[in-house]
Specification:
By secondary structure, the chain is α+β, with helices and mostly antiparallel strands. It is built from 8 helices and 5 strands. α2 runs antiparallel to α6. It is globular and about 55 Å long. It binds flavin mononucleotide. The site of flavin mononucleotide (FMN) has 8 residues, from loops.
Length: 208
């Protein structure tokens, strides 16, 4: 596949690739992805995030996540969870994306005109942009990624990474590697349904 680096191409080529094959990801690639992420916008440039990249301790980490996931699902089916984990196990690097609640709380304290809920919402918007930046940067580097939410396993992950919890909340986990197989695009709503020009227009009725 030609590695066209245009934004047009990256936007269309990015997929949720949940089964990745091992690949050694060099320091320069990791640094480039992080540098692109660093320029993500955030409300008042608050940058309420921290990213932990794991490459060396992945086997141990996946085992810890699996143990926490099995415990959280005691008595309930685990197959879907284990299949997902097995797909991620090939990753050459995993980006753990955290919201830094201390930064958000400081912004809540110093912002008089917006509610705490609004300020928190802005922080979540910024985290979403950060994750998208990491995702596109990974694709730009010829790699594939996905975004997973390990809610029941969050505390176990924080313990493993030695990151203070609950100051830092795990927003997303992004395993990066080589695609194990091609993923068909899941499709999108048509443009005329999601956008209007000059004023809102309801989508044209489909004739029966
Ligand atoms: C906010 C958000 C949360 C997501 N959470 C998960 C998740 O927990 N597990 C997962 O496998 N995919 C997750 N995804 C990926 C979506 O399922 C995926 O982006 C969507 O189906 C479109 O597919 P595409 O990414 O290949 O275009 C998430 C995506 C977003 C933006």
């Amino acid at each position: 596949m030609p590695n066209d680096h245009s934004l047009w191409d990256l936007a269309h080529r990015r997929r949720s690739v949940r089964q990745v094959l091992p690949v050694e990801i060099p320091d320069e690639t990791i640094e480039r992805i992080l540098e692109i992420a660093r320029w993500t916008p955030s409300s008042y440039n608050s940058q309420p995030w921290h990213i932990v990249v794991v490459r060396e301790r992945l086997a141990e980490l996946w085992d810890a996540i699996e143990a926490a996931g099995r415990q959280a699902r005691a008595g309930r089916p685990v197959e879907h969870f284990i299949n997902r984990l097995n797909g991620y196990r090939g990753a050459g690097a995993v980006f753990f994306v955290f919201l830094d609640r201390a930064v958000v709380e400081e912004q809540v304290r110093t912002t008089s005109y917006a509610s705490a809920q609004r300020v928190e919402g802005w922080a979540l918007e910024a985290l979403g942009m950060l994750q998208f930046a990491i995702w596109l940067a990974a694709v730009d580097a010829g790699l594939a990624a996905s975004l997973h939410h390990f809610d029941s396993e969050e505390e176990a992950i924080c313990r493993f990474l030695e990151i203070p919890y609950p100051r830092f909340r795990l927003m997303g986990t992004m395993p990066v590697g080589l695609p194990a197989h091609e993923v068909a695009p899941p499709g999108r709503r048509p443009l005329e349904e999601i956008a209007s020009f000059e004023r809102w227009q309801p989508p044209a009725e489909s004739t029966p």
